[in-house]
Amino acid sequence: MSAETQRREIRLRDPQVVGELLDRACAEVDDVRHAVMTSRDGLVIAADSGSRTEGDGEATIALHGSALAAAAASIGDHFSGLVAQGRLQSTVFEAERGCVGVFPMSSTLLLIVTSMPSVTPGRFAAAARRVVSTILQPDR
After folding, report:
1. d(C-alpha 124, C-alpha 53), whole Å
2. Residues in the chain, pLDDT under 70
3. What distance in Å separates the CA atoms of residue 71 and residue 40, rounded to the nearest whole number?
4. Please, which residues have CB within 8 angstroms of residue 70's CB and are 6 or more apart in sequence?
5. What is the pLDDT of residues 62-87, one digit of tens each?
6. 36 near 22, Cβ under 8 Å?
7. Cα 11–Cα 14–Cα 18 angle in degrees, nearest 5
8. What's the pTM value of the predicted model, to 2 decimals?
9. Cα distance between the two ends of the chain
C-alpha cells in the first residue's frame, strides 16, 4: 500500500478530520448545502457544521439522514444488481427545492450531499462530484 493511499485511509477514519473536510467542501463548492459521512449501517461518522447546528428541522439531517442514506444505498445496490448495471455509484433524489445524493465512498462509508435550493440535477451532480473529490483527495 502506498504512503498516499495509507494516509487517505487514516484520514477517513478520523471523524474530526472528516468533519473539517466536509466543512471545507461545503464552503468551497457552489450549490452544496450540507455533507455528512455515515457508515453503511446508518451511523454518523462526521458532518459539516451546518448539518449539526442549524434549526430544529435541519439539526436532524445528520442523524435521520444517515439511516435513510443506508436504506437508499442498499436499495440502489439491489436495484442496480437486478438490472445488471454494475456497482452503485450514486443515488440522487430530486425534490422541489433541490437535490439529495448518496455516494458510496468505500465498502463501509457513505457520503450524503444536499444542494442549495433550486439547484438542477445536472449542477448538483457536478457539485457533488467535487465534494467526493475533496474527501478522497484532500491535498488537492
Report:
1. 23
2. 1-12, 52-60, 140
3. 9
4. 38, 39, 40, 41, 42, 110
5. 877 888 888 888 888 888 888 888 88
6. yes
7. 70
8. 0.83
9. 20
